[in-house]
Amino acid sequence: MKIPFALLYVLNLVRKNLIKTIACILIAVVAPFLNSLKDNRNEDKIDYQYQKDGQYFYVTQDISNNEFTYEVKAFDKVPHIKNGKLISYSYNDANIGIWVAFVILCFYHCNSVAGFGFDASHGFGLYRDWETDRKSVV
């Protein structure tokens, strides 16, 4: 029984380009997780608040190393305040790591497919495998 040409072609591509194939699979796995992690919720106790020239200012306190530290936060619109605490959201840093991994994998994949580099061995060798498999089937 002969193996169909398309299956033979794909199997040879995977066998000869294992690392590049793994990179393609990882791109497909990582892509759905881009920006999937929720933003961090920050709650700061408000000590003092005032409004001047259409901006809202809030003095918040934080306790670190048994010392109080104060910070002034300015907003153009009235922020969300609940139970005397200023509620704000910040971007989750883990999303940045996922984006970095995705960009590196995409760069590696594009570099491999296009065959950039000093010799033809950097590419996937699509034409080379096509010719080899075509000759073995015919």
The helical percent reads: 40-55%
Poorly predicted runs of 5 or more residues: none
Indicate the structural class.
Answer: alpha+beta
Number of strands: 5
Count of separate structural domains: 2
* Radius of gyration, in angstroms, nearest whole number: 28 Å
Description:
This protein is of the alpha+beta class and 138 residues long. The chain folds into 2 domains: 5-35 and 94-137, no CATH class; 40-90. It contains 4 helices and 5 strands; from the N terminus they run H-H-E-E-E-E-E-H-H. The protein has helices at residues 5-16, 18-30, 93-114, 126-137, and strands spanning 40-52, 55-64, 67-75, 80-82, 85-90. Strands 3-2-1-5-4 form a 5-stranded antiparallel sheet, with no helix packed on it. Helix 1 packs across helix 4 (126-137) and helix 2 runs antiparallel to helix 3. The longest helix has 22 residues, at 93-114.
Architecture blueprint of SSEs:
Blueprint (H helix, E strand, L loop, with lengths): L4 H12 L1 H13 L9 E13 L2 E10 L2 E9 L4 E3 L2 E6 L2 H22 L11 H12 L1
Antiparallel strand pairs: 1-2, 1-5, 2-3, 4-5
